[in-house]
UniProtKB/TrEMBL annotation:
Residues of the signal peptide: 1-40
GO biological process, one term: transmembrane transport
GO CC annotation, single: outer membrane-bounded periplasmic space
Protein name: C4-dicarboxylate ABC transporter substrate-binding protein
Keyword Signal: yes
Highest classification ranks of the organism: Bacteria, Pseudomonadati, Pseudomonadota, Gammaproteobacteria, Oceanospirillales
Species: Vreelandella boliviensis LC1
Coiled coil regions, renumbered to chain: none
Entry's family note: Belongs to the bacterial solute-binding protein 7 family.
């Protein structure tokens, strides 16, 4: 009987131990499953308003749509992105100011206007700084670019990623341009940025800084002779209708930037912040790829529309003419200019 009692007690103990172990296993399994379930359920539905000043044919819009798609996919639709093209929420300065106070959530913005808020961004505007798109990507996506991008937080903005406007070229309605002296007497719209203004004044043009929305009207009315922009913008805005000549100077590589309102960014859940960052980076890379793919086709269409295109202007003469710009601004950017020049060698 004693042996039997001991056996029964032992069996009961084993049964109890196994029962507890089973419960513990089930409990752990359940708990381990909870974060995955909770992650999908815990994302609070939110709508982000993303603005640009371009039309729906432009690379900025292509980047914005890719971003919209990625964010929706990664959040199972909990985070939606509403795109406002065509400067419907204001020009780029207005958009940046709106982001600072939280009335605009985010945008894809040209680097030039951003430099009016953080001086260091102007270093990327120096003429003939980058010999190729690949050298620009290396700097922008590397340590230098990310250091400068982070400075946006000092002005209540959040830099997400460098997208692309591309290498800028000159168009005008008066005559062909091959060398700097051909710009004498021409009135050209430039971005509202002092480096752009000084660059084109050194080249001999009458440089007029103005918002892009105003520039389109001025080109149509003939109050300015020309402008400078990458091929994608020249094509997207049908500038062949008002501009007869395109010169492929590739004088400045212009980044674009996915920028967010810092108050809006801080209001996102950490999981959503990670998704937004990754989506901006991927959308930027996609926009760069599309620019490269589309440029040859866009140039062909501009030529068919009647635009005379100079593919091989005297670049050396242009580079020599803008040397004073480096003398004026070289020390303004701390060691950034030197570091960029060393990296692109």
């Amino acid at each position: 009987m004693k042996h039997r009692a001991r056996f029964t007690a032992h069996a009961a103990s084993c049964y109890t131990s196994k029962f507890k172990q089973l419960n513990l296993t089930l409990l752990c399994t359940g708990l381990l499953g909870l974060p995955l379930m909770a992650q999908a359920e815990e994302i609070t539905p939110i709508n982000l308003r993303l603005a640009t000043v371009v039309n729906t044919e432009d690379t900025y819009h292509i980047a914005a749509e890719r971003f919209q798609q990625l964010v929706s996919e990664q959040t199972d639709g909990a985070v939606s992105v509403e795109i406002f093209p065509n400067a419907s929420l204001g020009d780029e300065r207005t958009l940046l100011e709106g982001m600072q106070i939280g009335t605009v959530d985010m945008g894809v913005i040209t680097n030039g206007p951003v430099a009016n808020f953080v001086d260091e961004f102007s270093v990327f505007e120096l003429p003939f700084l980058f010999p190729s798109a690949e050298s620009a990507y290396s700097v922008l996506d590397g340590e230098i670019g990310q250091e400068i991008l982070a400075k946006l937080e000092d002005v209540n903005l959040k830099g997400l990623a460098f997208a692309e406007r591309g290498f800028r070229n000159i168009t005008n309605s008066q005559h062909a341009i091959n060398a700097p002296e051909d710009l004498d007497g021409l009135t050209l719209r430039v971005i509202e940025n002092e480096v752009y203004v000084d660059t084109f004044r050194e080249l001999g043009a009458n440089a007029v800084p103005m918002a892009w929305t105003e520039a389109l009207t001025a080109l149509q009315q003939g109050t300015i002779d020309g402008q400078e922009n990458p091929v994608n913008a020249i094509h997207a805005f049908n500038l062949a209708e008002t501009q007869d000549y395109l010169t492929m100077t590739r004088h400045i590589y212009a980044p674009a930037i996915f920028i967010m309102s810092l108050p809006a960014w801080n209001g996102l859940q950490v999981e959503v912040q990670d998704i937004v960052l990754d989506a901006a980076s991927e959308a930027s890379a996609y926009a760069r790829e599309q620019n490269a793919i589309m440029e040859a086709e866009q140039l062909a269409e501009l030529a068919e529309a009647g635009m005379e295109i100079n593919q091989s202007p005297d670049i050396a003469a242009f580079q020599e003419a803008v040397a004073p710009v480096y003398e004026k601004y070289g020390d303004q950017f701390g060691d950034y200019l030197q570091r960029i020049q060393e990296e692109v060698k």
